[in-house]
Every structure is written in C-alpha cells, then in structure tokens.
Amino acid sequence: MTQLQDQLQEQPAPQTQAQAQGLPPEPELHPESRFYFGWLMLPVSLVMVCCTLPGQSVVVSQFNTSFRESLGLSLESLSTAYLVGTLAAAFPLRRIGRLSDTLGPRITTALVALGLTLGCLVVSRSLNAFALTLGFFLIRLFGQGSMGMLSSHLLALWFERRLATVESIKHAGFGAACVVAPQTTVWLIAAVGWRQGYAILGLSVCLLVLPFVATIYRNKPEDIGQHLDNEPPGEHKRWQKIHKQHTQPEVPAHFTLPQARATLTFWALMLPGMLSGLVGTAMIFHIQPILEHANVVNFKKAGATAASAWGVALLISTLISGPIADKIAARVLLPVACLMMALSFIVMGLASSALHASISMATFGLSQGLYTASFGPAVARFFGRPHHGEIRGFVTTLFVAGTATGPFLVALGARLAGGDFGPAFYISAAVAMALGVLATKAVRPPQPTI
Known about the structure:
By secondary structure, this protein is mostly helical. The radius of gyration is 23 Å and the shape is globular. Helices cover 74% and strands 0% of the residues. The protein has 20 helices and no strands. It has one domain (37-223, 252-441): Growth Hormone, Chain: A (Up-down Bundle), CATH 1.20.1250.
C-alpha cells in the first residue's frame, strides 16, 4: 500500500490545455475581492488620456494663428513643421509599447509624463520653425502617442469582458475635457500669452499624473493577487458567443505583432482609425483657416466652438457606444462609424458658416466615439494581452503617422484648389466609405499555431 502511494505521488500532475500549448500558466486565483482594484485604474487612465491634450490637435489648433503670427510662418510652413514633428514621433512608439511590456506601464507612464512636460516647455520657448518642429515631435510622441497608448494599455491589463464599457467611460471623460479645452486654451492665450500658456499646460501634466504613479497605480491584477475582471478564468461564454471566438475559453489569445499584422482583421480594424486620424486632425488643426476662408466673422472663437461641438459629441457617443460594443461585434459597428465619418467630411467640404463646421465636427465626434469603443477592446480581445503593449505601440505609430500627414495634405490640397478645402474632404469621404466595406471583415482570427 505504501509503495503504491509513493508511485502515485511521483506521477507528474496533468498538464492544463494552456501548458500543453506552450502558454504561460494561469496565476493561482486569489479569493474574489469585494472591491476590484481595476476600478481605481479607470480614473488613473482617465487622467492620463486627459493629459494628452497639450499634444492633441484640439488644443494645438488654438495656437495656430499665434504660431504663424509670432514666428512668421505660412500655413504650409506650419503644417510642414507639424508633419515632420508628428511623423518623427510615430517611429519610437512601438519601442515605447515594448518598453511598457518589459518595465510595466507604471514606470513607463512616469517617464512619458516627464517627456511631455519637456515638450511643452520646448514649444513655449520656440523662436523659429526648427525649434517648433522639435517641440511638436516631443508633444506628439509623449502626448498624443505614448500617453494615450498607455492609458488604453493599462485598462486592457485589468479588463476584458467590461473593456468596451470602461474604455467608453474613459473616452467620455476625455470628450468632456475636449468640450472645455478649446475655450480654456483661447482664454489662457489671451490671459498670459501663448508662450506662458503652453508652459502652464506642460507643468500641469506632471502635477496631475505623477502623484497617481507614486500612489495607487498598479500594473496588472496578478501583481496584487487578483484576476482579470475579478472573475475566475473561463467565464466569458457570453462574449465568446457575441464575438465568434474560435478558441477554447481557457486558452486566451496570444498573438505576436507579426502574427497580428498577417491577419486581415488587423487591417480591417486599423485602417479606418488611420483615416480618422489623418482627416480628423486636419479638420481640427485647420479649423481657423477653414472658417477664415469661408469669411466667418470672429473665426478664432467660431473654431473653438466647432472643436467644442466635437468634444460634446465624442462625450455622448462614447457613453452610449461602450456598452453597445460589449454586446455587438466590431464588424457591425465599425462600418457605421465609417459612414458617419464620410458624412462629416462631406459637410466640412461644403461648410460656409460656423454652424456647418460645428455640425461636421459633431458628426465626426459621434463617429470617433463609436470607432474607439469598438476598436480598442477588439484589439485586446482578438490578439490577447501578452504582446498587447507592442501591438498597440505599432497601431499607435500608424495612427500618429496619419495625424502627421493629414494637416499637410489637406493644406496642399487647398492650395492646389485655389484655397478651397472641399476637394480634399470629398476624396476622404469616398475612402471612408470603402473602408467601411473592409471593416465588415473585422472578425476574430484563428489562434496562431506557433
């Protein structure tokens, strides 16, 4: 009897399905906590995404006229500086995403916050186009690129089933910030001047982000004995049914970046966002020249109002779209977002008043909110968490590249059309409708074999 017991004890424990497929083992489950720490990561993520505003076009555009008048730049020269700075900022983003996979988002966020503050200070001290280009590089790299990417990466490490909902809450808060940011920026420039105004924006980033990093910020639930969604693994049958998951629930998706890029789903998800960044950034960045060309009285204030209309629509759209995206597949929602995007471009091309511009920007905000609520969770769910930082880094690189080229291409199109911005927006609308067809292919790809 004793010999039989010894033999049984020597037998190895059976492998789980995850171990048999070479995946890292599931962490030992901690008894479910009454309070999930991920809910504290939501306000941290919200603060992070709001602190991208000094590097976002909705704020930068309010300095458009100040930059040109103070530094003696033409519209194309300013657009070129924005193009070069933003395009250069796109390339390091993949490495920053990989760094967050290695060091964790907490340390990476602290470094990014310091970099964004430095960028704002460089912009505030710019005396020529070269210095302004360097400032654009820093605020686009650490603001619109890295900080925004890390805010989504953090939530993806804490949520899966509720990811679309929490992302929508985050982006609703960002939309609310975008409602007041344009008017606040215009007031700040009038009160202290554009140079001191940008310095104040930069210092605010560190004052807001670093205290969270030093206190409640945590990288992932496993670090404190909790689990993704604060639920036992495998309890995702509702989501699997909705999103047509092709793998067993105990085997999470684990795509590497090259494997993700090899799928049609990756491009069906990504390309509409790249177009949205390209043309949407151009609309926001050039809103003052667009309204000036349309002979709108007090075009600076009207431009801020149109940008605020975008923020209001983004707020409403993200609040509604998040819960919807947890129930309806991305392949259904993304084509709708593309159709609204095309409509907003057409209205902007025809705009002859401040009201038209506000309608266009509001429609674009509705489209962007729906797209964001569908896209971010789909990337995490379809391609998994192990390489999520690098994948999001690459995607953000492409998005930032789109935002870099948009203002320049639209300014060039306007010059070729004799000052008319319309043709560039009409072409963009046609592309948006084509990408809406492609977006119907955004289904969960089969699990990679290696």
